[in-house]
Every structure is written in structure tokens, then in C-alpha cells.
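Lab manual, section 2.4: Encoding a predicted structure.

Procedure: take the sequence of the chain (80 residues), apply the prediction step described in section 2.3, and record the output as C-alpha cells. A sample record is shown.
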Amino acid sequence: RARPLAKAARLAVRISAADGHQTALKTLGVAGQPPVLFIPALGVPISYYELFLGELADAGDTVLGLELRGMPNSSITDCL
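Recorded output:
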């Protein structure tokens, strides 16, 4: 069994769009490995996939999980 890399190497980074709004990019896994970019389904927060992303990281992948606009970790909310 692989050592639990995801638990030791989790990081959330704030990124800014050209219009000034921010969102989160969660990184898991080992630095130096080619990353896998994970974009969740529309309307689903990245936190829903946390266990799945952790499994990918534990298997040795570097995973970048992007929080979409309007989700809990973004600075913009849905305008209805």
C-alpha cells in the first residue's frame, strides 16, 4: 500500500481571474510529478470529490482540483 501522501501534502491556493474574482485550487500529492487537473461537474463543489482526489494522490499522482465560480470556495456566488 502506498504511503498516505495526500494527507501529508494538501494545499489550497487562491487564484485570481482577470476580472478580480478568486477561486481555490486544491493540490494533493507529490511535488515534481506531472499534475492531473480535475474539474468537477457544474454545480458540485470540489469538496464533494475530496476522497476521490485523495485516492489519486495516495496512488502517486499529483492532483489539482479546481473550485468553479459560484461554489463555496470562490469569491463570486450565483446571481439569481
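Check your result against the sample. The mean pLDDT is 77.
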